[in-house]
Amino acid sequence: MHHYTNKNHTTTTIRNSIPSVQTIDDLMVEKCQPGDVILFDRRSECCAAGFSAALGCLLGKTILCDEEDGTRSVERGSYEHCGVVVPGLSDAQGAQHDSSNLCLLEATSGNGIVCRPLLTRLEMSRSRSVMLLPLSCPGEHRQQDVITGLEDESELSEKTKFLKKTMNDELIKFRDKWLTDSQSQGYENQHSYLSIMGAFLYLTNLYPTFPIPVSPSAWLVVSALQECGAAMKLNEKQAQQTRVEDFTL
Fold first, then answer.
1. How far apart are CA 220 and CA 15, in angstroms?
2. Which terminal residue of the chain has fewer beta carbons within 10 Å of its beta carbon, N or C?
3. Integer Cα distance of 188 and 172 in angstroms
């Protein structure tokens, strides 16, 4: 688990004047690959998209994140928002292997479904904590690589390389489709209300009855992972019933 503090102007100045200094954000991005899932323990009082966004965040944390006994450890956090790492928009040669080209695809209140540079997204985060869940293809040892920092693409089998390329290609298609659909359908005006409705339906146990995702951000990530073949196929209703914290189980 990685904990972040807010970035202020002083920090930015230091990073610009000492290029060799790496922040925790930099180190985290270096370990990320397309298909990884990032969870956010957000602060509802810091939501910049207005009252409805803050209310959706608060209800998500209160209703969707509580333990069965009503308790929660500080170390674990209350994760009610998530995004999936996808290849960036640059098509330059070698860009797909460049960590600086990675983006985070996520559903938001202010801008709909967005795809922002991963490092920029982490730096602007005001969350209490952020958790990285690395995705491993068959034959790949990501857990060890994340800890030791050792990773050699040449050591992967041809089958694993093929699977990773296929997954990346499918994530790009998914990214482009959902960015287009979000803009054409005005999703930025729907996300907060879907989050609020999803939390209330979960609280009242009515969520199996209505075709509304319990957590819109979790639903987007599950859909992306299914589309690229990284998750088992769920029917639409099962995908809509996914909570962010289900990724930690």
1. 33
2. C
3. 21
